[in-house]
Design goal:
36% of the residues lie in helices and 23% in strands. It has 279 residues and is of the alpha/beta class. The protein has a domain at 88-206: P-loop containing nucleotide triphosphate hydrolases (Rossmann fold, 3-Layer(aba) Sandwich). The strands form two sheets. The chain has a six-stranded mixed sheet with strand order 7-8-9-3-10-11, with helices on both faces. Strands 2-1-4-5-6 form a five-stranded antiparallel sheet, covered by helices on one side. The longest helix has 29 residues, at 250-278. It is globular. The termini are far apart.
Length: 279
Protein backbone atom coordinates (compact mmCIF):
# COMPACT_ATOMS: atom_id res chain seq x y z
CA UNK A 1 0.00 0.00 0.00
CA UNK A 2 1.25 3.47 -0.81
CA UNK A 3 1.70 5.85 2.09
CA UNK A 4 -1.75 7.08 3.03
CA UNK A 5 -1.57 10.88 2.93
CA UNK A 6 -3.30 12.78 0.17
CA UNK A 7 -2.72 16.11 1.94
CA UNK A 8 1.07 15.81 1.90
CA UNK A 9 1.62 17.03 5.46
CA UNK A 10 3.25 15.49 8.52
CA UNK A 11 6.80 14.84 7.26
CA UNK A 12 9.31 14.72 10.13
CA UNK A 13 13.04 15.29 9.66
CA UNK A 14 15.32 14.47 12.60
CA UNK A 15 18.80 15.83 11.96
CA UNK A 16 21.81 15.06 14.18
CA UNK A 17 19.76 15.41 17.36
CA UNK A 18 21.55 15.23 20.69
CA UNK A 19 20.23 15.49 24.23
CA UNK A 20 22.21 15.81 27.46
CA UNK A 21 20.56 15.78 30.87
CA UNK A 22 22.53 17.28 33.73
CA UNK A 23 20.52 16.79 36.93
CA UNK A 24 22.55 17.88 39.94
CA UNK A 25 25.72 17.89 37.86
CA UNK A 26 25.32 14.29 36.63
CA UNK A 27 26.12 14.35 32.91
CA UNK A 28 23.76 11.94 31.09
CA UNK A 29 23.91 11.79 27.30
CA UNK A 30 20.53 10.47 26.14
CA UNK A 31 20.94 10.97 22.36
CA UNK A 32 23.87 11.68 20.05
CA UNK A 33 23.74 12.56 16.34
CA UNK A 34 20.33 10.87 15.93
CA UNK A 35 19.05 11.27 12.36
CA UNK A 36 16.24 9.78 10.28
CA UNK A 37 13.30 10.81 8.10
CA UNK A 38 9.59 10.02 8.37
CA UNK A 39 7.53 10.67 5.25
CA UNK A 40 4.15 12.38 5.38
CA UNK A 41 1.49 9.78 6.15
CA UNK A 42 4.01 7.13 7.15
CA UNK A 43 3.59 4.77 10.10
CA UNK A 44 7.01 4.82 11.78
CA UNK A 45 7.66 2.55 14.76
CA UNK A 46 10.58 3.21 17.11
CA UNK A 47 12.09 0.35 19.11
CA UNK A 48 15.16 -0.03 21.29
CA UNK A 49 16.34 -0.83 24.82
CA UNK A 50 14.66 0.79 27.80
CA UNK A 51 16.15 4.20 28.54
CA UNK A 52 17.66 4.60 25.07
CA UNK A 53 15.97 7.92 24.32
CA UNK A 54 12.80 6.94 22.44
CA UNK A 55 10.49 8.95 24.69
CA UNK A 56 13.03 11.79 24.87
CA UNK A 57 12.77 12.10 21.09
CA UNK A 58 8.96 11.97 21.17
CA UNK A 59 8.90 14.71 23.81
CA UNK A 60 11.13 16.91 21.67
CA UNK A 61 8.87 16.51 18.63
CA UNK A 62 5.77 17.13 20.75
CA UNK A 63 7.28 20.26 22.30
CA UNK A 64 7.44 18.93 25.88
CA UNK A 65 11.25 18.94 26.06
CA UNK A 66 14.25 20.63 24.47
CA UNK A 67 17.26 19.21 22.62
CA UNK A 68 20.92 20.03 23.18
CA UNK A 69 22.06 19.83 19.56
CA UNK A 70 20.70 19.22 16.08
CA UNK A 71 17.34 20.12 14.56
CA UNK A 72 13.86 18.65 14.14
CA UNK A 73 11.61 19.80 11.30
CA UNK A 74 7.91 19.26 10.65
CA UNK A 75 7.05 19.87 7.00
CA UNK A 76 10.31 21.81 6.63
CA UNK A 77 9.42 24.11 9.54
CA UNK A 78 11.97 24.09 12.36
CA UNK A 79 10.16 22.97 15.51
CA UNK A 80 13.07 22.05 17.79
CA UNK A 81 16.70 23.09 18.13
CA UNK A 82 18.94 24.48 20.89
CA UNK A 83 17.84 27.99 19.85
CA UNK A 84 14.15 27.33 19.17
CA UNK A 85 11.41 25.13 20.60
CA UNK A 86 7.84 25.22 19.31
CA UNK A 87 5.34 24.72 22.10
CA UNK A 88 2.93 21.75 22.10
CA UNK A 89 0.00 22.23 19.71
CA UNK A 90 -2.83 20.26 18.13
CA UNK A 91 -0.72 19.59 15.01
CA UNK A 92 1.25 17.09 17.17
CA UNK A 93 -1.05 15.02 19.38
CA UNK A 94 0.26 12.48 21.92
CA UNK A 95 -1.41 9.34 23.27
CA UNK A 96 0.45 8.42 26.47
CA UNK A 97 1.07 5.09 28.21
CA UNK A 98 -1.20 5.99 31.09
CA UNK A 99 -4.82 6.82 30.43
CA UNK A 100 -5.63 10.51 30.26
CA UNK A 101 -9.42 10.59 29.88
CA UNK A 102 -11.33 12.94 32.15
CA UNK A 103 -13.24 10.61 34.51
CA UNK A 104 -16.01 13.17 35.06
CA UNK A 105 -16.77 13.50 31.34
CA UNK A 106 -18.61 11.07 29.09
CA UNK A 107 -16.94 9.50 26.05
CA UNK A 108 -18.37 12.05 23.63
CA UNK A 109 -17.45 14.91 26.00
CA UNK A 110 -13.89 13.61 26.24
CA UNK A 111 -13.53 13.39 22.47
CA UNK A 112 -14.93 16.87 21.82
CA UNK A 113 -12.95 18.56 24.59
CA UNK A 114 -9.95 19.48 22.41
CA UNK A 115 -11.65 21.23 19.49
CA UNK A 116 -14.03 23.00 21.87
CA UNK A 117 -11.37 24.34 24.24
CA UNK A 118 -9.21 25.33 21.24
CA UNK A 119 -12.28 26.96 19.67
CA UNK A 120 -11.64 25.04 16.46
CA UNK A 121 -15.27 23.87 16.31
CA UNK A 122 -18.60 24.92 17.72
CA UNK A 123 -20.30 22.38 19.96
CA UNK A 124 -22.83 20.99 17.43
CA UNK A 125 -20.06 20.49 14.84
CA UNK A 126 -17.76 18.83 17.39
CA UNK A 127 -20.53 16.53 18.64
CA UNK A 128 -21.40 15.48 15.08
CA UNK A 129 -17.73 14.81 14.30
CA UNK A 130 -17.25 12.75 17.47
CA UNK A 131 -20.38 10.68 16.86
CA UNK A 132 -19.34 10.09 13.26
CA UNK A 133 -15.92 8.82 14.41
CA UNK A 134 -17.47 6.56 17.03
CA UNK A 135 -19.92 5.16 14.50
CA UNK A 136 -17.19 4.38 11.96
CA UNK A 137 -15.37 2.19 14.46
CA UNK A 138 -18.47 0.58 15.95
CA UNK A 139 -18.42 2.46 19.26
CA UNK A 140 -21.49 4.64 18.85
CA UNK A 141 -23.28 2.87 21.71
CA UNK A 142 -20.76 4.08 24.33
CA UNK A 143 -20.93 7.83 23.71
CA UNK A 144 -22.74 8.54 27.01
CA UNK A 145 -20.65 6.21 29.16
CA UNK A 146 -17.97 7.36 31.59
CA UNK A 147 -14.36 6.05 31.45
CA UNK A 148 -14.78 3.89 34.58
CA UNK A 149 -17.53 1.97 32.77
CA UNK A 150 -15.17 0.99 29.94
CA UNK A 151 -12.47 -1.66 29.62
CA UNK A 152 -8.85 -0.53 29.29
CA UNK A 153 -8.86 -1.39 25.60
CA UNK A 154 -11.97 0.68 24.88
CA UNK A 155 -10.52 3.59 26.87
CA UNK A 156 -7.42 3.44 24.66
CA UNK A 157 -9.59 3.61 21.55
CA UNK A 158 -11.40 6.65 22.87
CA UNK A 159 -8.07 8.35 23.62
CA UNK A 160 -6.93 7.78 20.04
CA UNK A 161 -10.19 9.18 18.67
CA UNK A 162 -9.80 12.17 21.00
CA UNK A 163 -6.40 12.84 19.42
CA UNK A 164 -7.63 12.35 15.85
CA UNK A 165 -10.61 14.71 16.07
CA UNK A 166 -8.13 17.59 16.23
CA UNK A 167 -6.89 16.62 12.74
CA UNK A 168 -3.21 16.65 13.73
CA UNK A 169 -0.37 16.31 11.26
CA UNK A 170 1.29 13.75 13.52
CA UNK A 171 -0.11 11.34 16.11
CA UNK A 172 2.51 10.15 18.60
CA UNK A 173 1.83 7.04 20.66
CA UNK A 174 4.15 6.09 23.52
CA UNK A 175 3.60 2.37 24.20
CA UNK A 176 -0.17 2.92 24.18
CA UNK A 177 -1.05 -0.77 24.53
CA UNK A 178 1.41 -1.62 27.30
CA UNK A 179 -0.34 -3.59 30.02
CA UNK A 180 -3.09 -4.95 27.77
CA UNK A 181 -3.36 -8.72 27.43
CA UNK A 182 -2.59 -10.45 24.13
CA UNK A 183 -6.24 -10.63 23.00
CA UNK A 184 -6.88 -6.97 23.81
CA UNK A 185 -3.69 -6.02 21.95
CA UNK A 186 -4.86 -7.89 18.86
CA UNK A 187 -8.14 -5.95 18.90
CA UNK A 188 -6.24 -2.68 19.35
CA UNK A 189 -3.94 -3.46 16.44
CA UNK A 190 -6.92 -4.11 14.18
CA UNK A 191 -8.52 -0.88 15.39
CA UNK A 192 -5.38 1.15 14.73
CA UNK A 193 -4.99 -0.35 11.25
CA UNK A 194 -8.61 0.57 10.52
CA UNK A 195 -8.03 4.13 11.74
CA UNK A 196 -4.75 4.51 9.86
CA UNK A 197 -6.20 3.30 6.58
CA UNK A 198 -8.95 5.95 6.68
CA UNK A 199 -6.90 8.86 8.06
CA UNK A 200 -4.07 10.94 6.67
CA UNK A 201 -1.95 11.29 9.80
CA UNK A 202 1.70 10.49 10.21
CA UNK A 203 2.18 8.00 13.05
CA UNK A 204 5.16 8.04 15.45
CA UNK A 205 4.77 4.90 17.55
CA UNK A 206 7.04 3.71 20.38
CA UNK A 207 6.95 0.09 21.54
CA UNK A 208 9.00 -2.74 23.00
CA UNK A 209 6.74 -5.32 21.30
CA UNK A 210 8.46 -6.46 18.10
CA UNK A 211 5.36 -8.19 16.71
CA UNK A 212 3.46 -4.94 17.22
CA UNK A 213 6.23 -2.97 15.50
CA UNK A 214 6.31 -5.14 12.40
CA UNK A 215 2.55 -5.57 12.14
CA UNK A 216 1.84 -1.83 12.31
CA UNK A 217 4.82 -0.10 10.73
CA UNK A 218 5.85 1.02 7.27
CA UNK A 219 9.29 1.14 8.83
CA UNK A 220 10.86 0.06 12.11
CA UNK A 221 13.57 2.39 13.42
CA UNK A 222 15.88 0.47 15.75
CA UNK A 223 17.73 2.64 18.26
CA UNK A 224 21.05 1.86 19.94
CA UNK A 225 21.53 1.82 23.66
CA UNK A 226 22.26 5.19 25.27
CA UNK A 227 23.35 7.58 23.86
CA UNK A 228 20.70 6.80 21.26
CA UNK A 229 21.52 6.73 17.57
CA UNK A 230 19.83 4.92 14.72
CA UNK A 231 21.26 1.42 14.49
CA UNK A 232 19.11 0.20 11.62
CA UNK A 233 15.93 1.03 9.72
CA UNK A 234 13.90 -1.96 8.53
CA UNK A 235 11.36 -1.38 5.76
CA UNK A 236 8.24 -3.50 6.29
CA UNK A 237 7.06 -4.68 2.88
CA UNK A 238 3.75 -6.16 3.96
CA UNK A 239 0.45 -5.37 2.22
CA UNK A 240 -2.18 -3.04 3.68
CA UNK A 241 -4.64 -3.29 5.27
CA UNK A 242 -2.71 -5.57 7.63
CA UNK A 243 -4.40 -8.79 8.75
CA UNK A 244 -3.16 -11.10 11.48
CA UNK A 245 -2.68 -14.10 9.20
CA UNK A 246 0.37 -12.20 7.85
CA UNK A 247 2.22 -13.13 11.05
CA UNK A 248 2.59 -16.67 9.73
CA UNK A 249 4.09 -15.63 6.40
CA UNK A 250 7.74 -16.18 5.56
CA UNK A 251 8.19 -12.47 4.84
CA UNK A 252 6.89 -11.54 8.30
CA UNK A 253 9.06 -14.13 10.06
CA UNK A 254 12.16 -12.95 8.15
CA UNK A 255 11.43 -9.36 9.18
CA UNK A 256 10.99 -10.41 12.81
CA UNK A 257 14.31 -12.25 12.82
CA UNK A 258 16.04 -9.19 11.35
CA UNK A 259 14.55 -6.80 13.91
CA UNK A 260 15.06 -9.20 16.82
CA UNK A 261 18.74 -9.67 16.02
CA UNK A 262 19.39 -5.92 15.97
CA UNK A 263 17.35 -5.20 19.11
CA UNK A 264 18.85 -8.12 21.04
CA UNK A 265 22.37 -6.88 20.36
CA UNK A 266 21.54 -3.44 21.78
CA UNK A 267 19.61 -4.87 24.74
CA UNK A 268 22.66 -6.96 25.64
CA UNK A 269 24.87 -3.85 25.53
CA UNK A 270 22.41 -1.98 27.75
CA UNK A 271 22.34 -4.86 30.25
CA UNK A 272 26.12 -5.08 30.38
CA UNK A 273 26.41 -1.30 30.84
CA UNK A 274 23.94 -1.53 33.73
CA UNK A 275 25.98 -4.33 35.29
CA UNK A 276 29.12 -2.16 35.14
CA UNK A 277 27.31 0.83 36.61
CA UNK A 278 26.11 -1.31 39.53
CA UNK A 279 29.60 -2.72 40.18
Amino acid sequence: MAINNQNGYGAISIRKVGKIYDPEGVHVEAMRDCSFEIAAGEFAVIVGPSGCGKTTLLNAIAGFDTITSGEIYLDEELISSPRKQIKPDVDRMVVFQNGALFPWKTVVENITYGPLVQRKMKKPEAMDAARDMLSKVGLNEIEDKYPEELSSGVQRRVEILRALINKPKVVMLDEPFRGLDAIAKTVMHEFLVQIFCTASNTMFFITHDLDEAIFLGHKVVIMTTRPAQVKKIVTVNLPWPREHHLKGSETYLDLKREVLEAVHEEAKKAFEAGEREMA
